[in-house]
Amino acid sequence: MVPTSKPEAEVAPRARRTRLTPEREAELYAAVLAELVESGYDALTMEAVAARARSSKATLYRQWGSKSRLVAEAMRHNRPFSLDGLDTGSLAGDIHELAGRMGRAKQDHEVFRAVAAAAHRDPELGAALQEVTIGPVMDTLREMLERAAARGEIVADAPAAAYFPHMLLGAMFGRKLFDRCEPDPEFLRRYVDDAVLPALRHRG
Amino acid sequence: MVPTSKPEAEVAPRARRTRLTPEREAELYAAVLAELVESGYDALTMEAVAARARSSKATLYRQWGSKSRLVAEAMRHNRPFSLDGLDTGSLAGDIHELAGRMGRAKQDHEVFRAVAAAAHRDPELGAALQEVTIGPVMDTLREMLERAAARGEIVADAPAAAYFPHMLLGAMFGRKLFDRCEPDPEFLRRYVDDAVLPALRHRG
């Protein structure tokens, strides 16, 4: 049903989507994410998504216009792991708690990995990744550091604070790439204690 | 021409390749790398490589057997940036020199990025990446730290030394992902001074 009570200009951008129920939309997004994890972004096809969701390529193009828009919307719809109430009382504890929540959300992790490389080339995907994952995680990391500085665990104006996200990303990606295993909690604990905290305690 | 002077057992594994001249092989490998950078690993097809190199899918399969083997061999053939004589007299200088050499080898960097995600799923690719890039870089990093410790720039048994590659990887990938720009020399200089060196100077 196309809504008619709103002014034309407001309705137009989403009007083409109004034929799908929220339930059907959710099914299609789930199919997109499953295909993404299975094939990677570059090899994902609208045909494969349509087949998995028992839909048609024509429907997908009519509703979303392009593969990158469809994937971006699927990522937005499937908000990942919660960051709420992440406050354990210590910086190391906070990082482990964050890593644990991210680690348990295994599909999100795989979606992130599948999309990260393509996001360099595609601004639409890049924006979705930023909004859904990177932005919220960056905010959480900033708050962690503020609390840690307030407790005196790290110095308040550590120059390394700007590179805190980069150091954590290196632990996640590097563990896979160099050591060919998962960044498990024990590895992260050592990495934080041996590399991250010493850097954050240095006043520059 | 199939060589006949060697014992059968030694010849067999490479015999199927002997019909291509080294020049033709080099052209095919160049086509593989160009396709890889353009399409990413997952979307790369034998058809596209064959078309670019004016060859045929049948030839590619006869010579290499599979896409992952073809890509792995193309990476091995195209040895990246040289690491020879990388010794500037300071750890920061060495890291900048390494980053500069890696940065100038722009295609290698893009090939690495195109293959890194797929290498998690494909042991053949993973082994090629390890042999061509990761292994030599890890050796170079280890030597850098040994020289830096000998000069007294860092402590000899810094617990963070084990995470030196991870921290540098975080700078390269994180700069793109979080800050959406290239890890230029100025960024790397600050990252090394503010995050990496303080960690490496900490005795644990």
Automatic annotation (TrEMBL), chains A, B:
<keyword id="KW-0805">Transcription regulation</keyword>
<dbReference type="GO" id="GO:0003700">
    <property type="term" value="F:DNA-binding transcription factor activity"/>
</dbReference>
<protein>
    <submittedName>
        <fullName>TetR family transcriptional regulator</fullName>
    </submittedName>
</protein>
<feature type="DNA-binding region" description="H-T-H motif">
    <location>
        <begin position="45"/>
        <end position="64"/>
    </location>
</feature>
<dbReference type="InterPro" id="IPR009057">
    <property type="entry name" value="Homeodomain-like_sf"/>
</dbReference>
<dbReference type="GO" id="GO:0000976">
    <property type="term" value="F:transcription cis-regulatory region binding"/>
</dbReference>
<dbReference type="InterPro" id="IPR036271">
    <property type="entry name" value="Tet_transcr_reg_TetR-rel_C_sf"/>
</dbReference>
<dbReference type="InterPro" id="IPR011075">
    <property type="entry name" value="TetR_C"/>
</dbReference>
<dbReference type="InterPro" id="IPR001647">
    <property type="entry name" value="HTH_TetR"/>
</dbReference>
<dbReference type="Pfam" id="PF00440">
    <property type="entry name" value="TetR_N"/>
</dbReference>
<dbReference type="Pfam" id="PF16859">
    <property type="entry name" value="TetR_C_11"/>
</dbReference>
<feature type="domain" description="HTH tetR-type">
    <location>
        <begin position="22"/>
        <end position="82"/>
    </location>
</feature>
<keyword id="KW-0804">Transcription</keyword>
<keyword id="KW-0238">DNA-binding</keyword>
<dbReference type="InterPro" id="IPR050109">
    <property type="entry name" value="HTH-type_TetR-like_transc_reg"/>
</dbReference>
